[in-house]
């Protein structure tokens, strides 16, 4: 099968490309390389450097006519979206519309979209479900929510197949602290530079940390399953920042200083996504425990 991954030179995208190549797919990547790194692309993937909202991207999709488009390219920095909502919407909303128009014109079967737990805003529940109300509190999450809805309407009007995957807090090898963010990558950076960890608040806030390989598996399962569905890609488990700190300090041979700072404004306390529907629909499960995923990620930081 022929696949296109937008944002395929990014953290999650490059892992997905590896997974698709391993499955024997012909893989094309559309990436403008603003945060993407061609160095992490699988040697068998074919890179097309272009913005998602460009005519060039439309032309590539018309030429390639892939079986599935995995649309991961995005402006993914929450703070940046607040500083520059125009740029965020340009990439995330207009970019998604451009991909959808190209899918329609080129009669592409299916789009698999990377969305976020951020669409629920600061709604706190023991576990969020896909039917909970959406109330984004950043322009980034808002632009993802709008992207989702455009996809549903393209499906309704033009019969485009889709699976929307709302990710928890993704971590793993290859994630960078800048741009792609993420507390695990930030802590990795600190360890590499022998700098202290900074924890905002008391560290008891929790997130649903999902290992990148499990995210890849959910995307692969979406090639043939989950049509018309919106699904969580998550563990359904809460892990605190303090737990992260203790796992990383236990792995590190040198002592690590931990500094507690005042809580960050707007930081949500708990985020956990129920994954029952994803398990039922995709026959998928989050297979990597936090301890296992953190150990793999830690090893990747100190590989020669
Ligand atoms: N966090 C922290 N120290 C850091 C970076 C992040 O204590 O150096 C905390 C942050 O305040 C939040 C949690 O880790 O409560 C997860 O942050 P991240 O930016 O990874 O994800 P998000 O808040 O978007 O879920």
- Cα separation of the termini: 35 Å
Ligand identities? uridine-5'-diphosphate
Share of helix among residues? 25-40%
What's the Cα radius of gyration? 19 Å
Q: Could you tell me the number of beta strands?
A: 13
C-alpha geometry: globular
Entry summary:
Belongs to the NAD(P)-dependent epimerase/dehydratase family. With 304 residues, the chain is an alpha/beta fold. It contains ten helices and 13 strands.
3D architecture notes:
It is built from ten helices and 13 strands. It is α/β, with parallel strands linked by helices and 304 residues long. It has two domains: 2-170 and 210-234 and 274-282, Rossmann fold, CATH 3.40.50; 172-206 and 238-272 and 290-301, Alpha-Beta Complex (UDP-galactose 4-epimerase, domain 1). Strands 3-2-1-4-5-6-11 form a seven-stranded parallel β-sheet, with helices on both faces. It has a two-stranded parallel ribbon with strand order 7-10. Strands 8-13 form a two-stranded parallel sheet. The two termini are 35 Å apart. The model has no long low-confidence stretch (mean pLDDT 96). Bound molecules: uridine-5'-diphosphate. Pfam families: Epimerase.
Structure characteristics:
304 residues, two-stranded parallel sheet, 18% strand, globular, UDP-galactose 4-epimerase, domain 1, Rossmann fold, 2 domains, alpha/beta, Epimerase_deHydtase, 7-stranded parallel beta sheet, NAD-dependent epimerase/dehydratase family protein, binds uridine-5'-diphosphate
């Amino acid at each position: 099968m022929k696949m296109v991954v937008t944002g395929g030179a990014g953290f999650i995208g490059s892992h997905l490309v590896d997974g698709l190549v391993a499955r024997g797919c012909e893989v094309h990547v559309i990436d403008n390389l603003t945060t993407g790194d061609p160095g992490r692309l699988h040697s068998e993937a074919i890179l097309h450097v272009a913005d998602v909202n460009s005519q060039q991207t439309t032309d590539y999709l018309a030429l390639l006519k892939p079986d599935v488009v995995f649309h991961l390219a995005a402006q993914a920095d929450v703070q940046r979206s607040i500083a520059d909502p125009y740029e965020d919407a340009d990439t995330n909303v207009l970019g998604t519309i451009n991909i959808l128009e190209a899918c329609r014109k080129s009669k592409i079967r299916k789009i698999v979209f990377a969305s976020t737990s951020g669409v629920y805003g600061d709604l706190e529940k023991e576990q969020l479900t896909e039917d909970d109300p959406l109330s984004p509190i950043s322009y980034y999450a808002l632009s993802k929510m709008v992207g989702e809805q455009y996809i549903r309407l393209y499906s309704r009007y033009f019969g485009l197949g889709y699976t929307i995957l709302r990710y928890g807090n993704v971590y793993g090898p290859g994630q960078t602290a800048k741009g792609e963010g993420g507390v695990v990558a930030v802590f990795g950076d600190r360890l590499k530079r022998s700098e202290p960890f900074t924890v905002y608040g008391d560290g008891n806030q929790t997130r649903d940390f999902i290992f990148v390989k499990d995210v890849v598996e959910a995307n692969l399962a979406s090639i043939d399953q989950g049509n018309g569905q919106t699904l969580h890609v998550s563990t359904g488990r809460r892990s605190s920042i303090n737990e992260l700190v203790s796992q990383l300090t236990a792995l590190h041979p040198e002592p690590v200083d931990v500094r507690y700072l005042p809580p960050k404004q707007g930081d949500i306390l708990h985020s956990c996504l129920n994954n029952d529907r994803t398990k039922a629909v995709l026959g998928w499960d989050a297979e990597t425990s936090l301890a296992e995923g953190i150990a793999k990620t830690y090893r990747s930081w100190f590989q020669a």
